[in-house]
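Form 7-S
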Amino acid sequence: MNNDEPDRLPPPPFWRTRYFAFDVMPRRPELDPIEIRRIIDRPEYREVQRDGRIRFYGFSASLGQYLRIVLLPDGETVHNAFPDEAFTP
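Output:
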């Protein structure tokens, strides 16, 4: 990566890593940024990973299942998002 390029990209719709913007979203076009924002704002469940990243879980009505949203330790930068079939509320 060029040193002049930021490690994260600003809103809209939310702060996100380059990985999320250029790798995750193209592979998962079914993910709705509005639903991701809603889950970040009002998660049904939250946990901190050993590496400090934060997992948010919330139900996606458009997908009919729970999403796991992974934020960096800063608590605002989205790094990953995906349907989590193993999650049970």
